[in-house]
Write a structure and sequence with these properties.
This protein is of the alpha/beta class. Helix content is 32%, strand content 26%. It is globular. The two termini are 17 Å apart. The protein folds into 2 domains: 170 residues, Peroxisomal Thiolase, Chain A, domain 1, CATH 3.40.47; 143 residues, Peroxisomal Thiolase, Chain A, domain 1. Bound molecules: acetyl coenzyme *A (ACO).
Length: 323
């Protein structure tokens, strides 16, 4: 059975760091409020001349290096972003040119914070159906550009960054012992469009707009939906939460991460948490957490991972991957 094996990953965070105290110097908030409600301690912010494609390129180069794959051998790039360089073309095509990939296809997916799971799903489907052999999947965001820095309810929550992973076609036995992507499940419910959205856009205001969120509503949906979809993905792979070595969740909020792990029955010691250092980097947060777990030696070859995320739409999903 043809599988997509995850053979490398990489991460990039901009140099500039903004602490909670830095924010408390500008708006009416405090380190204590932000930490207690979200677990966030700081966030990285892109330099004025740093674009989403720059972040994506830096993370992608590291992922390719760690995979030992030459960019010329890629035949697919799926870039998840809700902060593209331009309205069109896809930021993925800029990345394609900069990496030196001339064949295949590069395109963006827009599933906000669930973007990386969506990219995983799309790339895995294309690889398994024979439409691609070697794929780069990327999450890259510059949310600092769409934050209303006077809105304390949202601006304290997000950061900039990028993470990437390389998937390669391999033959497996078709069992849950195989290495690679074992199952992905995705859902959306557009009735919650207004719960988390950007109040601008090409067709509405011809401006890029600012992020608006009903925090409580998002929180309410997050835990139930994430635990359910992760359970469905595990079941589809013929596995249970007890088989999981590492939960690699979207890093929106420590309370959402803890509550989802608890609901799934995956203990905190088996959960990768980077939200304190990175804040919510939307589509970049899962590959950033994955890279952090691999770099510090916690996540090892052969480990079973569950990745899960929810974001604007609402869109949510989970992927089960054996490294
Ligand atoms: N600093 C200080 N006080 C604040 C801040 C702040 N940054 N933000 C809001 N407050 C105040 C509010 O004004 C309110 O004051 P009031 O009681 O005088 O009216 C009080 O704190 C409580 O506000 P709530 O919004 O009710 O606080 P809540 O406990 O719901 O926490 C939070 C807000 C952290 C946003 C929470 O709802 C949450 O985590 N939601 C999930 C949203 C999320 O993570 N979104 C990320 C994108 S989606 C995703 O990635 C999953």
């Amino acid at each position: 059975m043809r599988r997509s094996r995850l053979v490398g990953c990489g991460a990039y965070l901009p140099d500039r760091v903004l602490s909670n105290d830095d924010l408390a110097g500008r708006i009416d908030t405090s380190d204590e409020w932000i930490r207690t409600r979200t677990g966030i301690g700081q966030r990285h912010v892109a330099a004025d001349d740093e674009l989403t494609s720059d972040l994506a390129c830096a993370a992608s180069r590291k992922a390719l290096e760690s995979a030992g794959v030459d960019a010329a051998d890629l035949d697919l790039i799926v870039l998840a972003t809700s902060t593209p360089d331009n309205t069109f073309p896809a930021t993925a095509t800029k990345l394609q040119a900069r990496l030196g990939m001339t064949g295949g296809i590069a395109f963006d997916v827009q599933a906000v914070c669930a973007g990386f799971v969506c990219a995983l799903s799309v790339a895995d489907s294309m690889i398994r159906s024979g439409g691609a052999d070697t794929a780069l999947i990327v999450g890259a965001e510059t949310y600092s550009r769409i934050l209303d820095w006077d809105d304390r309810q949202t601006c304290v929550l997000f950061g900039d960054g990028s993470g990437a992973a390389v998937l390669r076609a391999e033959d497996g036995d078709g069992t849950s012992d195989d290495r690679g992507v074992l199952a992905v499940r995705m859902r959306s419910d557009g009735r919650h469009y207004q719960a988390l959205y950007v109040d601008g856009g090409v067709s509405t205001t011809q401006t890029s707009g600012y992020l608006r969120m009903q925090g409580r509503e998002v929180f309410r949906h997050a835990v139930a939906n994430l635990a359910e979809i992760a359970g469905e993905a595990l079941e589809a792979a013929g596995l249970t939460p007890a088989d999981v070595d590492w939960l690699v969740p979207h890093q929106a909020n420590r309370r959402i991460i803890d509550a989802t792990g608890k609901k799934l029955g995956i203990p905190a010691e088996k959960t990768i948490v980077t939200v304190e250092r990175h804040a919510n980097t939307s589509s970049a947060s899962i590959p950033l957490a994955l890279a952090a777990g691999i770099d510090d030696g916690r996540i090892a070859s052969g480990d079973l991972l569950v990745m899960e995320a929810i974001g604007g739409g609402l869109v949510w999903g989970a992927g089960v991957v054996r490294l």
